[in-house]
Known about the structure:
One of its GO terms (cellular component) is cytosol. By secondary structure, this protein is α/β, with parallel strands linked by helices.
Amino acid sequence: MPEADTANKPKLGPGRMVLVVGPSGAGKDTLMSALREKLEGHANIHFARRAITREADTGAEDHETLTRPQFDRLVSHEETALSWEAHGLGYVIPKVYDAHISAGDTVIANGSRRILQRAADKYETAIVLLITAPVPVLAERLAARGRESRQDIERRLQRADLEPENVPNLVRIENTGPVENSVSRMMVALSLQD
Length: 194
């Protein structure tokens, strides 16, 4: 279910929506966790807790659990900041984060390449941090997680090289060295200091 057309509405600001995207195995969750720790105490920066149509799993992202009817209702009533579907699941960035952006704050969210244009249309400032790694590194990381079959990993890797096209404010961060280096690049991209 697509969200309502945002192209003709005034853009939301003056704060920023920062979407962290990239292929599975690139290390998005690791980098977001390290960035959150580094920015602890910054009252004007909020890390979005997503709602997903999946049961909570201790080995996965901390999220609110939604039923499919709840997801469909939120989307159809435009009660989300952003929403999308991928891998048979529905994902929601809750609407409460729009209030933070309206107040001039920065919201950092684990996003999807599917919503980048929608975010650019909706927010005055939408920044995309594309976290990447070479395919052999992605394969090694996905295999180490032990959550997917070899065929599932191969399917994910076929999508790994999908670079978003014509996306404004996109910053590419290759995550192959120490976590601290990638987090420093994220901080620079967002013009943030400790």
